[in-house]
User: What shape does this take?
Amino acid sequence: MENIRRYFKRTDKTYLLLCIFSSVMAVTALSSWAAKQGNGFAVDEITGQITGLGDYRRAAVQAGAALIGLVIAVLLSNIDYRSLVKVWPVHVALTWGMVLPTLVLRNVSIGPLTIGYNAGDTDNYSWYKLGGFTLQPTELAKISFILTFAMHLNNVRTRLNEPKELGKLLLHLAVPILIIHVQGDDGTAIIYAIIGCCMMFAAGLSWKYILGAVSAAAVAMATAFAFFSDKIGKGYQWYRILAVIDPDNKTGWAPSETIWKNIIYQQQRGEIALGSGGIFGNGLFGGSYYSVPNAHNDFILSWIGNAAGFVGCCVVLGVLFALVIKTFLTGVRSEDLLGTFICAGIGGALLAQIAVNVGMNLRVLPVIGVTLPFYSAGGSSVLMLYICVGLVLSVYTHNTKKLFG
Assistant: This one.
């Protein structure tokens, strides 16, 4: 008990409570979603007896993953993050060693294990499946990337703006992005890019490079849209972008009405569901709900808006943004730049996922398969998230510098 008391005295209790609150709210939201899917439980059609968890399984997996993740976060927070950086060859080999086979293998089964599993309706075969559980190794590799990129930045921090060193950093960032692009998971590739940009900004990247990169990106996008629009990404990706710009197909971007309706269907229903809850919602376990495909996953915010209303969404997003701010502040108070860079990467990842997912639900960004942290159903993503929480707590625990003096 004395060890527990000492731990909670030196750790960031507010950060832990914000994470626990988010997980509790996520399980509640997924349970309420399950309750609306028929009976939620799996029921025998003849006898009417409950035969399994049914849709409640997602809420149960989320709860179990959160509990395991919380234990991992607490254990990880007691390990000095510097030692985790030092063993980078080990976690790089393990994580990217799991990612690389999915580049060439598609639904290859080895006993109960499936490599290159497609967990959605796209051409993304970046998952592993073992029994009823799935794992996306790029989520685990994301943590390894943050640690190695932080180490790289720390090693060149005084030479960051030298073209030679900056080129090496950009190559370090480009390699995982290209690997993930080849996998077909461009949503995750974009998150990696944002993580890298946040970490370089925290390291003191010169504004001339930042403004130059923004200008070059704007010109490249304008040129691509003007002259190579039919070659941008895969067909459905291009359509999803156009569906945001021109949802009514006034420019005739969709070759048929069927394609147009299929592309806009999810976001259209998500937008309606999000607004149909009004101020206080229709009730988590009562009232009506406007059905949305994948409401338990990418569009969980639309469910929360319908069930808990504008107030519920504000609470959920307010707590998530508080976590982002706390992550960045932990980086600011770090005694060394290594801890600062790690927190910048994790904070950037959280902020990017939240912003993109909310944009998808509000129909201001195209659907690219980015989940809402803590809330979107998925045990492996919750575990990976709590590993990141453990790293932030490790930076907090193993530093003593005060934020103000």
Remarks:
- Strands lie at 42-43, 50-52, 108-110, 113-117, 127-130, 133-135.
- The two ends are 32 Å apart (CA to CA).
- The longest helix spans residues 300-332.
- The CA atoms of residues 30 and 326 lie 26 Å apart.
